[in-house]
Design a protein that fits this description.
Length: 170
């Protein structure tokens, strides 16, 4: 079997094997590219009243508990706090993907909305499906995609090389 035939066959089978994981990565990547421009994916960061955060942790928890959608009963329901001193905001990211943005000085709730970007990121890297799928499906699909790139470049280059060889021989 010639190198060109072998490459075409490898290219076809590689595309078939990696099609679904690559589609998930591409579509989720498109959404992630727009996350700062589309509030449906990630809520825009609000601006608080003070530059330096002065809100105690107890007040942050109390403010989060006052928003029913956040479903915060204790610190165990909080995934992380994101402090933005330049914007005067403390973001409270809850375990249920709900995001609260609090004024870093007063504790006033500036924004309360669902944050989808973390879910989309976990789809993008395959971790949403589980660690096994991430390592045994998405990683091999990425390697196959790299192989598709190399075989595709070879298949594109091959006719040009043959034409050049024929011209130089003539």
């Amino acid at each position: 079997m010639t190198a060109a035939k072998w490459n075409r066959k490898l290219h076809r089978w590689g595309a078939l094997v990696s099609a679904l994981p690559v589609l998930v990565v591409v579509l989720s990547g498109l959404l992630l590219q727009l996350k700062k421009d589309w509030a449906w994916v990630q809520p825009p960061t609000e601006v608080g009243s003070a530059q330096a955060p002065s809100l105690p942790f107890a007040s942050i928890l109390e403010a989060a508990q006052g928003v029913p959608e956040a479903e915060v009963r204790s610190w165990e329901d909080v995934d992380r706090l994101d402090v933005r001193p330049d914007r005067g905001v403390v973001k409270v990211r809850c375990v249920n993907r709900w995001e609260l943005q609090l004024d870093a000085a007063t504790g006033e709730v500036l924004s309360s909305t669902l944050r989808r970007s973390d879910l989309i990121e976990s789809l993008h890297d395959g971790s949403w499906f589980g660690e096994g799928v991430k390592l045994w499906v998405f990683l091999p699909a990425a390697l196959v995609l790299a192989g598709l790139w190399f075989t595709g470049v070879y298949l594109w280059w091959l006719p040009h090389a043959v034409r050049r060889r024929r011209r130089s021989a003539a």
